[in-house]
Design a protein that fits this description.
13% strand, alpha/beta, 375 residues, 5-stranded parallel β-sheet, two-stranded antiparallel ribbon, 43% helix, 20 helices, single chain, globular
Length: 375
């Protein structure tokens, strides 16, 4: 393996069992070392790009002092110890958890946010499900992201506001994209240096990627273009000037492999502006976009006819239907960043989802009551 091969340290109480997992990971061009907690050395930590810690430990099979404060209860406690050593060594490796029981660990946390929320609440960079068939891709992605953060700590001139790390396309909307990033208050100055870049990694992995922010998941991207998400995805499967224009807005920077594909909001905004500029002035916005996109596609484009289409979510934060804002209420869900696009819920969903009713924004509570919703 080359010196640039990502180096992964697996910490687990069953080393022999995990060696088979490591063998599979090595086939994907990862350098993997497996250690039990009592055999990890500082050299192991220093040599690693990613330290992946098992959640469950059977301490009856491992030597440890009898006093409870001298041995970690589980992988979360091991991760805190590892993080402390990394800080003292001034070495940043991503610290991630591997768990086969994320649902139990997450408890009442919304299902759509369990990985980033558990990571955030426990001082981790990310949480991986052991059963995830794409875990090797995820480890590669995190390792590359960590390596890419060196410029942030060592050379601010090379960092250029995260432009290279985020792989912002060199287009007419590049400055608009960087302005959108800045609105999200990235930790790229004193805090980033103090944490050797881990603050940026956690901000991006836990506060940006899971939400519609300056990069958007498919359904929010499609809605911005006034397209049903199925139509959006069908257009992308084709080779047309329209799909080419959309693909120029695809996010391809670090951690793009974590979860579904995402799209630069600034790029989509610019595309919409240019389409409307060329459209017939007497047409409504949805019709004007349909006319221009159909011309680029070479055939009819189905669009959303609502005056103000919004994406709704349920109490697990899963995106649902796209409806007109007049049929919805705004939400203020826990953990949702203030710089994210506003989340909405359909009036009808409030009847069937009591936890969702608790999220209704204060300003929209009178509207929800007038529609017949009961607290």
């Amino acid at each position: 393996m080359s010196p640039n091969t990502p180096r992964i340290l697996l910490i687990d109480d069953e080393v022999s069992k995990e060696e088979s997992v490591a063998a599979g990971l090595r086939l994907s061009n990862l350098s993997v070392v497996v250690r039990s907690p009592d055999t990890v050395t500082q050299d192991d930590l220093r040599a690693s790009n990613v330290i992946a810690i098992d959640h469950h430990f059977d301490w009856s099979r491992l030597p440890h002092p009898s006093e409870c404060l001298y041995w970690p209860q589980d992988g979360l406690a091991v991760a805190a110890v590892v993080t402390g050593h990394l800080r003292k060594m001034d070495h940043h490796a991503a610290v991630v958890l591997r768990t086969g029981n994320l649902d139990s660990l997450a408890g009442p946390l919304p299902r759509h946010l369990r990985q980033p929320a558990v990571a955030a609440e426990n001082g981790l960079d990310w949480v991986f499900r052991k059963e995830d068939p794409e875990i090797a891709h995820g480890l590669h992605s995190v390792a590359r992201a960590v390596e890419g953060l060196k410029a942030l700590v060592t050379d601010q001139a090379r960092w250029n506001e995260g432009c290279d790390w985020l792989d912002v396309p060199d287009t007419k909307w590049k400055e608009a994209a960087l302005a959108d990033v800045q609105v999200c208050r990235p930790p790229e100055n004193f805090v980033a240096t103090y944490t050797s870049g881990s603050a940026w990694l956690r901000w991006f992995a836990q506060r940006v990627i899971p939400f519609p922010t300056f990069i958007l998941p498919d359904i929010w991207a499609a809605t911005l273009l006034r397209l049903p998400v199925e139509e959006f995805q069908e257009i992308l499967s084709e080779e047309t000037p329209l799909s080419e224009a959309l693909n120029q807005c695809r996010y391809t920077g670090h951690l793009s492999e974590l979860g579904e594909q995402r799209w630069w909001r600034a790029g989509l905004d610019s595309l919409v502006d240019s389409l409307l500029l060329d459209a017939s002035s007497h047409l409504a916005e949805a019709e004007a976009l349909a006319e221009q996109m159909a011309a680029l596609r070479g055939r009819h484009v189905q669009t959303i006819g609502f005056e103000y289409p919004v994406v709704t979510i349920d109490s697990d934060y899963h995106p649902g239907e796209v409806l007109d804002a007049s049929d919805c209420v705004r939400l203020t869900p826990d953990f949702w960043p203030v710089f994210g696009q506003e989340p909405w819920a359909a009036f009808d969903e409030l009847y069937e989802d009591p936890p969702l009713r608790k999220m209704v924004a204060r300003g929209d509570r009178p509207r929800s009551r007038r529609e017949g919703n009961h607290e």
